[in-house]
Fold each of these.
Amino acid sequence: MKRIVVVAAVLAFSAGAVVAQQDQVKRTQAMMKDNGKNAGALSAMVKGEKPYDQSTVNAALAQFEDTAKALPTLFPESMKGLKMEGDYDPSPKIWEDKAGFETQIKNFAKVVADAKGKVKNLDTLRAELPVIGKQCSGCHETYRIKKG
Ligand code: HEC
């Protein structure tokens, strides 16, 4: 009887861990999708498809900043090898080259912080967006895998 209780407790625990991990994956993907949306909104302004709007810019930069802060916890070791929904998976390099990944996060945080003080109009947005975009793709090139 005692043994059954222990087994049940272990099962309940691992089910909880799976749920927690799915939540984490959802949180990570939601954050990256928001990054994509915000980057798209900024690039529409730069291309002249949308009028310049400071509140959209501020919201986007604030969200990038949140991402930079969250990134160190977005890819816990337990996510290694996990398949995600959508077109991309995290590369195992995130965990194999932790220092490199942390450098990417730091560089991203830095350009976002810089841009926050600078972007006040279309000209400054035009100058800063590629700097941020370069950091997004810099990390993606090495640490994100496009599914075949
Ligand atoms: C430090 C690394 C890093 C930085 C910086 C980063 N990303 Fe990502 N991004 C990833 C990884 C890893 C994935 C793949 C896992 C995933 O989909 O969440 C990803 C996935 C994505 C996806 C696909 C989401 C999906 O599943 O549909 C989008 C869109 C995206 N990133 C946009 C951005 C944008 C825009 C920026 C910059 C403003 C950015 N990312 C900055 C690492 C990064």
Amino acid sequence: MHKARYIRTGSIVLASTMKSGDYFGIFQCEHCKTDLILTQEHKRHGKIVSAFFKHREAENDFQKRCPLRVENNSDKSNKEKKSNKSKELQSV
Ligand SMILES: [Zn+2]
């Protein structure tokens, strides 16, 4: 996702407009209020990936089901569900 609430200013900001000093700030998802990680623009497989916000680990079901969470798109395979489950069991 490219938009988030910047806690310091309380306003919605675009990832691409953030300066280096902003990378230590706290950003929150507008929808689920999960803290976000600001990822800088970088190169991947020779292509430029523009700056974006990434959700931190969900603390509850509501955060887990956030439609803005990118991971949800690739969370449909059973394999991934299984590995998530075993992860949960380990941490208990
Ligand atoms: Zn969210």
